[in-house]
Every structure is written in structure tokens, then in C-alpha cells.
Amino acid sequence: MQVFANLVQVLQIISAMSMIGLVLVQHGKGADMGASFGGGASGSLFGATGSANFLSRSTAVAATVFFLSTLGLAYVGNHRASPTDQPSVFDQPAAKASAAASAAAKSASGAALIPTK
How many domains does the chain have? Predict the structure, then answer.
């Protein structure tokens, strides 16, 4: 299960970096005004309107992958694979916790150093 969590985390990092890059490559809404008056965007790689659609859809795909990987990491983080994993402090019974606390209090007060015989 740890391997799956690592793969999902790598997928999340890649999708986040690609989403950042795609957003930075896109141009703002005011830049379309110059393209409508012959600003030279028709000679670009994607055409006059092709870059907006391609980049917008690519950003949406990267955001979807990021969202799904975040849900996957949340699921993996909340569900343990096997009972041999380290239990949480909240999973321990209250009696066990109070016995550990009283033992810690004895050792801190020095009562454990006094011989009982």
C-alpha cells in the first residue's frame, strides 16, 4: 500500500507542476483583443483560437488528475493496509494510557528509585 501512496504522490506532484506551467503559458483575456484585429496569432502553432482551447483543456485535465490524486492520498492516509502498522495513540484503551501515565509520574517523582523491600 505504501508503493501505491508513493505513486499517487508522484502523480500529484507532476500534475501540480504541469498545471502551474499551463496556467503561466496562457495569456489573459485582454490579449484576445489584439488577435481579433490581426495581431499575428493566426501564424502560431495552434492557430488563432486553437491555443486557448488546447491550453484550457490541458489545464482542466491536469486539475482533474490533481483533484483525484488528492482524494486518493486522503483515502490511503486514513485507511491502514495491515494491522501490523503502528497504532495511533487514540486507538489505545484508556486503562493502558493511564497506567503508562502513572508509571511516568512515578519515575518523574523519584518514587521508582526507593526500594520496596
Answer: 1
Q: CA 87 to CA 79: how far, in whole Å?
A: 12
Name the residue with cell 508503493.
3
Q: Which of 1, 21, 15 is nearest to 67 (CA)?
A: 15
pLDDT in tens, 10-61: 999 999 999 999 999 987 776 656 556 655 555 555 555 555 688 889 999 9
61 and 23 Cβ atoms separated by less than 8 Å = no
Structural domain including 53 reads 2-113
Q: At how many degrees (to 10) do helices 2-25 and 50-78 cross? A: 150
